[in-house]
């Protein structure tokens, strides 16, 4: 389960940001997870709730926003949000597409006290 190592890195990042801002605690964390990031949202949430105890994030709300896969066609320029993972432009049926969102995980916001 690589979600545990991801959470450890996330907690470290939160602690660093809280320290830089002289905050005593983090009350809310918002994370964006791309559908193709390879991270299971449910497992990430379980890992976060397990490891946040006795950290600056103890008691913080954990909000996960799952980002669908978005592609852009290199032939016609159409950007499409995909409900299914299918790398083909629905407008011109070209296979020459690039992913523009939905493959990464980002820490979006922290609320601190």
Shape: elongated
- Rounded to an integer, what's the Rg over CA atoms? 17 Å
Can you summarize the main beta sheet? 3 strands, mixed
Low-confidence stretches: none
Number of helices: 2
Average pLDDT confidence is 94
Beta content comes to 25-35%
Number of strands: 6
Which structural class should the secondary elements be placed in? Answer: alpha+beta
The residue fraction in helices comes out at 25-40%
Q: What's the SSE pattern?
A: HEHEEEEE
Structure description:
The protein has 113 residues and is α+β, with helices and mostly antiparallel strands. Helices cover 26% and strands 34% of the residues. The chain is built from two helices and six strands; from the N terminus they run αβαβββββ. The strands form two sheets. The chain has a three-stranded mixed beta sheet with strand order 2-1-6. It has a three-stranded antiparallel beta sheet with strand order 4-3-5, with no helix packed on it. α1 crosses α2 (41-51). The longest helix is centred in the N-terminal third of the chain and has 18 residues, at 3-20. The radius of gyration is 17 Å and the shape is elongated. The mean pLDDT is 94.
């Amino acid at each position: 389960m690589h979600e545990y190592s991801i959470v450890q890195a996330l907690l470290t990042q939160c602690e660093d940001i809280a320290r830089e801002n002289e905050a005593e605690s983090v009350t809310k964390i918002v994370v964006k997870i791309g559908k193709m990031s390879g991270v299971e949202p449910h497992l990430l949430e379980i890992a976060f709730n397990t490891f946040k105890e006795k950290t600056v994030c103890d008691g913080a709300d954990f909000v996960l926003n799952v980002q669908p896969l978005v592609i852009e066609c290199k032939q016609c320029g159409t950007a499409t949000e995909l409900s299914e993972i299918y790398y083909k432009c629905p407008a011109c049926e070209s296979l020459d597409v690039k992913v523009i969102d939905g493959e990464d995980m980002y820490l979006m916001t922290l609320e601190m006290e």
